[in-house]
Design brief:
This protein has 227 residues and is an alpha/beta fold. The protein has 2 domains: 19-30 and 96-226, Rossmann fold (3-Layer(aba) Sandwich), CATH 3.40.50; 32-94. 42% of the residues lie in helices and 15% in strands. The chain has 9 helices and 8 strands. It has helices spanning 32-45, 53-59, 64-72, 76-94, 101-110, 123-132, 156-162, 180-189, 217-226, and strands spanning 19-22, 29-30, 96-97, 114-122, 141-145, 173-177, 192-196, 212-214. The strands form 2 sheets. The protein has a 6-stranded parallel beta sheet with strand order 5-4-1-6-7-8, sandwiched between helices. Helix 6 (123-132) links the parallel strand 4 (114-122) and strand 5. Helix 1 (32-45) runs antiparallel to helix 4 and helix 3 (64-72) packs across helix 4 (76-94). The longest helix has 19 residues, at 76-94. It is globular, with a radius of gyration of 17 Å.
Amino acid sequence: MSIGGPVVGTLAGMPRPQAILFDWDNTLVDSWGTIHQALNAVMAAMDKPLWSLQDTKQRVRLSLRESFPLHFGERWEEARGLYLDKFSQIHLKQLKALPGRSELLRQLAGEGIFLGVVSNKTGALLRRETEWLGWSSLFGSVIGAGDARFDKPDAAPVSLALEPCEIATGETVWLIGDTAIDMECAQNSGCVPVFLGAEAADEEFARYAPRFSFANCPALFRFVQGL
């Protein structure tokens, strides 16, 4: 699979998206440093080996309620509390949008496309970041971990995100992200999986491949305009 893209599937009869749902961390905003710092604060408190930044990038995919029991066992709720405390202290100071994302969101909103967020970041933190960046008015829904019955890659948060627009899942709904978890979530919910970001390892997407892939925002917007 090429990640430079777009990676073109079948374009014949491909409808224009009526709704586009975005992953948040490292799809729209740069947050690896913040996540890494908060995780290592927890590792130190729990007397566990610290992770490298590469470890964090490779291992962080699921929500806290899905991943922390795997890493911390019976102490996972304590670890979650430590993580959220540390993250809350530092996340707004370090928060920044990835290049071109603000312009992309405003362009897509100007096309009359419903925009939403489906993230595995805790919902309250996610909405605080959205407001901090001045993007709240661009999104019809902002759904984070814990807001739906299950988190990504389950379809539940996608269904919840689409409730305000009453658009049914299918070929007119795109889910844009940077990991295989996002592509899996799109497939589970019957949406079009789309990759946005720098080149990624093919093996991560061996099972859940994107329908389309874009290295940058202008390429994605031009593609949408052409549909």
